[in-house]
Amino acid sequence: MPKIHPETKVLIIKRLKTRSTADVADTFNVSQRQVQRIKRTFEDTGDVFDKPRSGRPRKTTAREDRLLARKSKASPFSTVAELHETWSPEVPVSTRTVSRILSRNGLYGRISARKPALNKRQLKNRVAFAKAHSLLKGWTLEKWKKVDFSDESSVELHQSPQILQETYWSPHGSEIHPENSEVWWRKNHGLGLHPVWGCVRDLQGGRQHQ
């Protein structure tokens, strides 16, 4: 929003004595909100000059900050440099300032979680299994001691740039959302990884297989 010269503010106050806010805004090519703010300042202080402010003035407006936050939410895995370039390349701010603006809008840089590629049916089956084998269904600790637990994983022998976790921007409490996670197995299986399988019962370890 362009800054209004003090002489123009004086003329606005004079016009408001005989004209409406809308007419004055059209005459001086400013918004009605600006006219109302000038009028309120004059009524409160008897002057049209802005109060002196401490500290360095901001290089971005609140509207520009909101635009940056919307772009980050639409593309959470974009880097700070990419967000700045698509946001407003002519704004003379550093990438650190971009990070601070995102933080002020509740968006923080995080490392994406690695999660297996499960479809909706598999997720539904897991929840159903957990509910069917809960303590309310009679599954005590003694019963669980008789169960063999098995799992599989992947051992990375040689680190590859293609499988490094990505950074994304999101508010607090959204770390476990699927859209903020990497589908680890489907995305990275075969890139220098070796699958292993093992099992365990109670306090006894089982064999591992590759």
Automatic annotation (TrEMBL):
Location of the Transposase Tc1-like domain: 65-133
Pfam families reported in the protein's UniProt record: HTH_Tnp_Tc3_2
Record-linked InterPro entries: Homeodomain-like_sf, RNaseH_sf, Transposase_Tc1-like
Domain of life: Eukaryota
A single GO molecular function term of this UniProt record: DNA binding
Protein's GO biological process: DNA integration; DNA transposition
SUPFAM superfamilies reported in the protein's UniProt record: Homeodomain-like
Name of protein: Transposase Tc1-like domain-containing protein
Natural source organism: Perca flavescens (American yellow perch)
Lineage: Eukaryota, Metazoa, Chordata, Craniata, Vertebrata
